[in-house]
Design brief:
Number of helices: 6
Order of helices and strands: HEEHHEEHHH
Keywords: Membrane, Transmembrane, Transmembrane helix
Protein name: ECF transporter S component
CATH topology: Arp2/3 complex 21 kDa subunit ARPC3
Distance between the termini: 16 Å
Pfam families: ECF_trnsprt
Transmembrane segments: 12-30, 36-53, 60-85, 97-122, 134-158, 178-205
CATH class: Mainly Alpha
Number of domains: 1
Structural class: mainly alpha
Helix content: over 70%
Number of strands: 4
Radius of gyration: 18 Å
Mean pLDDT: 90
Largest sheet: 2 strands, antiparallel
CATH architecture: Orthogonal Bundle
InterPro entries: ECF_trnsprt_substrate-spec
């Protein structure tokens, strides 16, 4: 039984890996261009995978997301892609090893955060009606906001001046811009993640339990 479960988990991880890669390369499927940056929903399969397979697989799927983000920033750069790739120079502004940190670390933590928030809320709900729905929604929000908050703050601390200049923003008000992205784009992304995570995980759990 353990071997069968391990094979099933690996198979599901492979499927989620393929979904993440597909979303990263198919135009407008995983990334929505917004001029100086891209909005994304690629964190959603990372969150779903973590909830179904556990935090270790969640970290692995986040790593896949991070690597695809770095590759995309390198091959199809926008004006601020240097913050995600050490191989990109745009208008005199270059990425460095902190670009790798920003691309990888927040993405690895997406699934981990989502999984433990889900488990915590389930424990607090203790079988109450609607508890699982609330847990799934909050897990989706937690995973999405982990990505947004860590990425945007990483950009601020490691690339503040160059990011502001490349984005044509006033440096003195850079963190206002960072907060604007977190609120303006991060919250809608989190709401979408909550809705999709709840609907998809519930459907998959029904199939799995039958």
């Amino acid at each position: 039984m353990k071997i069968e479960k391990k094979v099933l988990d690996m198979s599901l991880a492979g499927i989620f890996t393929a979904v993440i890669i597909a979303m990263s390369v198919v135009p407008f499927l995983g990334y929505i261009p917004l001029g100086f940056m891209n909005a994304t929903i690629i964190h959603v399969p990372v969150i779903i995978g973590a909830l179904l397979l556990g935090p270790k697989y969640g970290a692995y799927l986040g790593l896949v997301f991070g690597i695809t983000s770095l590759v995309r920033a390198t091959l199809t750069p926008t004006v601020t892609s240097f913050v995600f790739s050490p191989f990109v120079t745009i208008g005199g502004y270059s990425g460095n090893m902190w670009s790798v940190v920003i691309s990888i670390v927040p993405r690895v933590l997406i699934g981990v955060a989502a999984y433990y928030v889900y488990e915590l809320v389930l424990k607090l709900a203790r079988g109450k009606k609607g508890g699982q729905t609330v847990a799934l929604g909050l897990a989706g929000i937690a995973g999405s906001m982990t990505n947004t908050i860590l990425v945007m703050n990483g950009i601020y601390f490691f690339f503040g001046n160059s990011y502001a200049a490349a984005s044509n923003k006033v440096v003195a008000r850079l963190y206002d811009m960072i907060l604007g992205v977190i609120v303006g784009f991060g919250i809608p992304e989190a709401i979408v993640a909550a809705i999709l995570t709840t609907a998809i995980v519930k459907a998959l759990l029904k199939v799995k339990n039958h």
